[in-house]
Protein 1
Amino acid sequence: MAALDQGRAQAAAFRRERDVWRTVVAVLQHLLIYALLLAGAVLFTAPWAWMVVASLQDVSDMFRWPPSWIPVNPSLDNYARFLRTQHLGRMFFNSGYCAVAVTSLQLFFNSLAAYTFAKRRFPGRDFIFLMMLSTFMIPGQVTQIPSYLILMHMPLFGGNNLLGQGGHGWLDSYWGLIAPGAVSTYGIFLLRQYMKTIPDELLDAARIDGASEFRLYAQVVLPLTTPALAAMGIFTFTYVWNDFFWPLIIISSPSLRTLPLGLALFVVAHRTVWDLVMAGSVVATLPVLLLFLLFQRHFVRGIALSGLR
Amino acid sequence: MVQSIATRQPRPPLRARIRGVLREMRKEWTAYLFLSPGLLLFLIFWVFTIAFSFYLSFHDWNILEPARPFVGLDNYRDLLTDRRFHQAIVNTVYYTALSVPLTMVAGLVLALLLNNPIKARGLFRTLYYIPVITPLVVSAIIWKWVYQGDYGLLNYYLLRLGLISSPLRWLSDPNLAMPAVILMSVWGGAGYDMVIYLAGLQAIPEDYYDAAKVDGANSFQRFLHITVPLLAPTTFFLFVMSTIGSFQVFTQIYVMTSGGPLGRTTTIGYRLYEKAFRHFDMGYASAMAYALFAMVLGFTLLQLRYMRQRDIVY
């Protein structure tokens, strides 16, 4: 009997000790996770933080060795000079104008097409839809060269005649920056997948009440698609705002440059004007950063839902 | 058997079928109206351009010259002997082979860390994601500064940690330039992979882990036998999409190295840009674009076959 009690006590002590160890291991594990997360956070934000610090200093302080992470004589002078420098303020407007225009056009055209694919039955629907899907895997390079030529030969624009000869067409214009991006097959696909989940009964009820197809789209389906539209809109805006390649190949006038284009050309041409470049970089990042911070939930859900970039 | 043949409807004559389709098209005319803006742009900027660049690739087509003769397969034959194009392929494969797996591993590690019950998860996620939304041009500019030889941040900290004895010329050393570009791309892309992996991790039912714990599996075994296989579709999605994307890498190269030093960072995307939009040699560049397309297509088909063999449903 006594031996049994002793055994029980031993077992209890053993369990207590084991529990203590488990807690210690759990706490250590937690600490390790936080340490790793923190180290990661430092690595991921350091270059970015450096840009902000550098943008607030005089160019001579930027070259300090060892580098200082607290701005020496902080001032907004670089920003003021950045905005005053010719065309740099204009670039901000150009980026915003194109991003807003492309996003609005895509929200309308994509959703209109998505609604048609999701909720209408008509001859050729599946064929057209599959044709659009099949272009996903095609690298942009295949379409860029002919797109450039199409813009160049746009009739009656930019000094072109009726046959699209003689001038530069839509090259070097807002048209060229906006028109090719006004519709996205990827956006149509994503919105269509979302609209498919809206029950047909809702539409049938409205149809019986005599609603036109456009009203069905605008007043029944669109309000129910808001989350997908928000995600798509944010992504489109960010994509156009950040895009570099397309402006690079079609824009030649300094007054039509977008921010990424202007900054890149600035860096490649003047290797030494780091103070202005850093201020410009912060300015170029702020709008998309704000958009991201404000609509983070939509962003993350949008990516998770669709894997769209 | 006989019965089924007897009850089968006879096919209506062709003309009647066409009339039926036309009637339906007339009835559903608003569908075509709704589709028309999207379809028009799609036909112009996708269908037409894809066909037209194929046509271009068989011509000696320079914008600056009026004569644009048909040259048959000459452009493609030139690609076979073009040293700089071959170098671009090697560089692109090098870039892809390192940047894609590294970005995915970094994204997975971050996602696994964030998938624990921790405080401030949202804050960490935001911090890791900031490089993804930063314009690529800006990221490249920042890193160009980080990599500077004499006053760059990277050299400073490597020197201080005693890992190097003299400053390295990251972007002008032929052997270091591509790794430097890759590191920047990993930094800029890991947050995206992290979010996708996080969504994949959160879709795994907690019960699986509990059941494995009851069976005595340790945390590494649980990771290996539950997490890894259940994340396989996510991994494949990321792998295929990132590879297609990195075959086309351009912006970082343009800003940070302009294809140098000694052409060691000239990728297919960069070479194509030079040919098409600096030399305006549109025919040759189109052939290059189709070669790139063939590579992407070949890679995708291989991946699909591999997925089917392994029975991974995506």
Protein 2
Amino acid sequence: MDPTLTRIAEAEIEAEEAGARPASPWRNRKLVAGAVIVGVILVSTFIGGLVWDTTLARAATSPLNLPPFWVDGGSMDHPLGTENSGRDMLALIVVGSPTTLRVGLIVALISMLVGVVLGFLAGYLGGAVDAVIRILSDTAMTIPTLAIMIVIAAYIPEMNATTMALIIAVFAWAGPTRMIRAQVLSMREQGYVRMARLSAVSDTEIMFREMLPNLLPYLAASFIGGMSGGILAAVGLEALGLGPQRVPTLGMIVSQAIEGSAILRGMWWWWGFPAIILMVIFIGLFLIAIGLDEIANPRLRGART
Amino acid sequence: MPEPLLAVRGATKVYGKRQNAVTALRDVDLTIADGAASITTIAGESGSGKTTLADAILGFTGLTSGSITYRGRDLAGLSRRGRLEYRREVQAIFQDPFGVYNPFYRMRHIFDVAVRRFDLAPDKRAAQRLVDEALAVVGLRADEVLDKHPHQLSGGQRQRMMMARAYLLKPRLIVADEPVSMVDASVRAMILDIMLRLRDEHGISFLYITHDLSTAYQIGDDICILYRGEIVERGETRAVIDAPQHEYSKLLIGSIPVPDPEVVWDLDAPVSLTGESARTP
């Protein structure tokens, strides 16, 4: 074991003996800030869904092309304005943001699940299993994902948010698989793995009860990374007009703003509000991911975070 | 001739292929007799194949050729049940008392796993009694150590917990791979003392793997000197160390520091086998 780690461990013992609890690594500022940002988006869209009439997200429920209320011609009936087919911007955002987050969540869940299973099998069992999984994931990584996704998306007649998430997930598992495989390769030489084998512990149990818990912060960081990657891919597809057409998502609003020449017509609120929400979501997820990364790799922690 | 407890015959291990091939073990024979418990030392420098031999005996690595039999049964052909039994009867203590504990769990985890996998106790209370007894053998108290995390204990406590875990399984043989090379002098004496007690009072044989001949001299019954994957000399420990025959054994034994301020450490002594033999004690 790394002697510096021993020193850290000794310092922690001393701190505990002195009666002071060691500061929890989970109280990382970046992690907390990111979690608060994403939490605020989730809570405010949830509250928005309760107090605002979400049926206004359907076409022709409101007057066309109204600006936000603080601009001349705007009204408090539609505080964030409306777009050119008579949909209320606030209702669109209230309905669209959670859908966009859900797409990210599904992509991250599937890609991490596949990544954990394949990464552990490849890293721990090695040999032929490793060779096959490595070839598959390397191939998946070299495929120009967006091009293939466009082709697949074009073939699907009725696209909804879940279908789109599944299409993205088909290409998103390779990264986590390779990352987890590399971690497992170094972990399986650890003394506690040999110890578990001496206790006749089965391979499955060694992988998932001995090794997996030590990877949790790592997996959490890569889960959040997968989530923002999934949202990014979804917004890309939607901006190209290949997203779900009936359920509003943030990317779809932007896509329709482009089709409706919002920029030329000076309707900045049409593309501006969803873009801001997307940016805030990305910043929040990014902060969570680097916060978790610092917890997983103490070396990344600065002098004092 | 009675069946030996453990017999290694013609063990050869080659890592890599063709030009890059490294022979870690070459035609090694080793027997540990059944009956009276004994401590057999395998001594040699780094890279002499000591750890490869230990790994092969523990089933962590396969042999290129040769066989290892436990009570007459070849390890390679053991059934599932046979392997479980072998695991229980042949245990190990490793060099590094830090890495062998999973940092995610409390110390009791290694005992819980062992009790569960080998079905040692019918219920929790019986299991706790067994663990208490095993800890008592190494001079630790359950309430002081079991609910701690590994980093909260000292190296010596951790190494003694390893021995308690091995003892818990009541094995016939413990492979001790450099058990005292990462702990300080007082803990070293304690660990060696525990090994002697396990041999004398509990009938557990040891395969003591070390580069440190002075501890082998203290506790070992038989010794095998391993050099570049081959056993170059074997015999009764004191006889071998007092009168080594092979050039390499002489060199190895000559390099034990003498705790006498009058004796000047000979820095010019040849360190390779090609030169004249180094100082003999």
